[in-house]
Amino acid sequence: xxxxxxxxxxxxxxxxxxxxxxxxxxxxxxxxxxxxxxxxxxxxxxxxxxxxxxxxxxxxxxxxxxxxxxxxxxxxxxxxxxxxxxxxxxxxxxxxxxxxxxxxxxxxxxxxxxxxxxxxxxxxxxxxxxxxxx
Length: 134
Description:
mainly alpha
């Protein structure tokens, strides 16, 4: 069987995964998930948690926006060159995040978020390397 992940499917998978991660960040922000399960176990105060979670939510909203442009799901507010450049940056940060999750003191980050960020990294680079801009 010749199975190949399509450009659009990779974008949809990324968007779905990031929306789920956004939901997780909101659960941390409102206190349903304890903040000592995130940030590598290094977050010691609610103020630090609010800062980290706010940054994560904003960064993920930016990534959603970029993926929507790349998938031609919204108008091109940025050139495709800038979209690709930003996706490269996000891919690099996902690599760093995967490494950080692997050495985290939180088993949630080691066993759930490390593989998830690795999958996100592969999908981002798949989207970048695919021949089509849809």
